[in-house]
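Dear Dr. V.,

Thank you for agreeing to look over these. As mentioned in my earlier message, I'm a first-year student in the group and I'm still getting used to reading structure tokens, so any feedback on how I've presented them would be very welcome. I ran two proteins. I've put each sequence directly above its structure. The first is here:
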Amino acid sequence: MLSNEKYNETLEKAKKLLEFVDQQSNSRLAEKDELIATINSNIGNAYLELSKYDLALKSHQKDLEISLRFSNNEGISRAYENIGRVYARHGKFREALEVWEKKLGLVETGMEKAWLFHEIGHCYLELSKLLQKFIFKFTL
């Protein structure tokens, strides 16, 4: 649903799934915490596409918190990527940079590293534009 741009439907189903998974015992569902983290990631991505940045950030931070607790590097990397995307889309480029720089140590493939450097470069470009506007405004 998320890849088909059905964001509200994604949220509805993901929240129901999260509630169901949360009610299951750890013995019944061996990777319960990893699943909860992934569901929160999907919820955050749906909120991001709906431009609900605070809700997206909250969901991705839950993903990060759970992934850190269980030393799940894949989940930590995913959460850093998504938190950075939320900040960048919201125009908070400095915050995006801080998060994506943490992700750099977790990158495993050349393609992923290229994407991350592209995003980091974009943040620096946007910050440079903001600085130029600020300087121009005060030199008039």
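The second protein is here, in the same arrangement:
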Amino acid sequence: MSKMKLKPGVLTGSAVKEVFAYMKEVQCALPAVNVIGSHSTTAAFQAAKEANAPVIVQYSNSGAQFNAGKAMPNDKLQACVAGAVAGAHYVRSLSKAYGVAVILHTDHASEKLVPWVEGMLTHGEEYFAANKEPLFGVTGGEEDGVDNSDVDNAKLYTQPSEVLAAYDALKSVGAFTVAASFGNTHGVYKPGNVQLRPDILKASQDAIQKERNTGPKPVDFVFHGGSGSSEEEIRQAVSYGVVKMNIDTDTQWAFTQPIKQYMDSKDAYLKGQLGNPEGPDSPNKKHIDPRVWLYAGEKGMTARLVQAFKDLNSFGQFEF
């Protein structure tokens, strides 16, 4: 089939549904990148440009807070709200300049974070009233203070009956994605410690198709917690209807590693503004400039995301 053609900028509404339907047909998915500010966001844009595919830019509550500034008061989660809203506007402004298509998401949230979601919805309603499109596409191990590392292993596997119950509850509301658990966890673990079972996704799709007389693969699944997964496991999950894979731990490492390498290699130049192996009065400005090592981090993160596009079979599947 011919490649799907998209316009640069933020995709919303029916455009997102069409992208997800196309991806299930060609068996590919998109990385959902947790961003914390401009540097990680532009790294995601550059990866999407190189992959010639849309990217899902995603804010967690703590990522949104960091985007606003950790020093900003947050007693009512106002920093989380402000950071997410500012990030959404930043993405809308710059994605078109990069020539890439973006789907805006939030990461998951626990009950205590409801004020964060409500705050974004308020801003979203105001934005919709003025622009006739939503500001976000919102979806609701250890991550952001939610620690489930001690949960019974059996609970890491969602049953098809539970996915059917979610489908029935949400179908009348509108478009939705389901982050079913099939052994996936946050973070990177030693091989063999986590047993992924993507077949659970297939069983759920088959059960819903049979029980509700739908077409094939009626659910848009999310691979929530994909760091450290093998290409074979990722491709199998995608073949069963995964359209989105959250990636955070791997991109954090990809951003930090080249910065660490830079700091190590330039250590003698980073001890002061003056003085290095070239002489006691030699300036170090070009070495201490944060733009040098932050850009190294951006490039490392971009490279890791390009690999994610390839693992998810979405590299080169679109046209702009």
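From my reading of the second output: Residues 4-256+301-319 form a domain with the TIM Barrel fold (CATH 3.20.20.70). The two ends are 16 Å apart (CA to CA). Does that match how you would interpret it?

Kind regards,
E.
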